[in-house]
Amino acid sequence: MFILIVLLVAGSVLVYISKFNFALVSINLGFAIFSDVPLFYIIVGSVLFGLVLSSLVYLINNISTSFKLHGKDKDIRKNKDEVLELTKRVHQLELEKEKMKNGSELEEPSDPKSL
């Protein structure tokens, strides 16, 4: 419903602009000259060109941001794996410490909840 209202308002604005800007003008693009073009078409064309250009800039920015985030995700995954390995090593060292503390070399300490 909101989109319909926005489209109706935009259409009303375009009709209002076209009503008062129908003078014929010439466009010189450097390599081509267009004569007798209504000013309203130039206004609407400029707005549409600006929208397309800003959409392209937004898309390029969005793609570069996604590449940066993908790199950060890889770093986070690598660091999580490193933390897991270090946690395992700490647990092994704690078991060795308990083994040395008790002085029992016959019995191998085991922890069923270990990683």
Notes on the structure:
This protein has 115 residues and is mostly helical. The chain has one domain. 72% of the residues lie in helices and 10% in strands. It has helices at residues 2-20, 39-102; strands spanning 24-28, 33-38. Strands 1-2 form a two-stranded antiparallel ribbon. Strand 1 (24-28) and strand 2 form a beta hairpin. Helix 1 runs antiparallel to helix 2 (39-102). It is rod-shaped and about 100 Å long. 0% of the residues are buried.
CA-CA gap between termini: 55 Å
Helix fraction by DSSP (H/I, runs of at least 4): over 70%
Number of domains: 1
Strand arrangement, major sheet: 1-2
Return the average pLDDT rounded to an integer. Answer: 87
Structural class: mainly alpha
**Backbone shape:** rod-shaped
Tell me the radius of gyration.
Answer: 35 Å
What does this entry show, briefly?
With 115 residues, this protein is mainly alpha-helical. The chain has two helices and two strands; from the N terminus they run αββα.
What key attributes describe this structure?
single chain, 115 residues, mainly alpha, two-stranded antiparallel ribbon, 2 helices, 2 strands
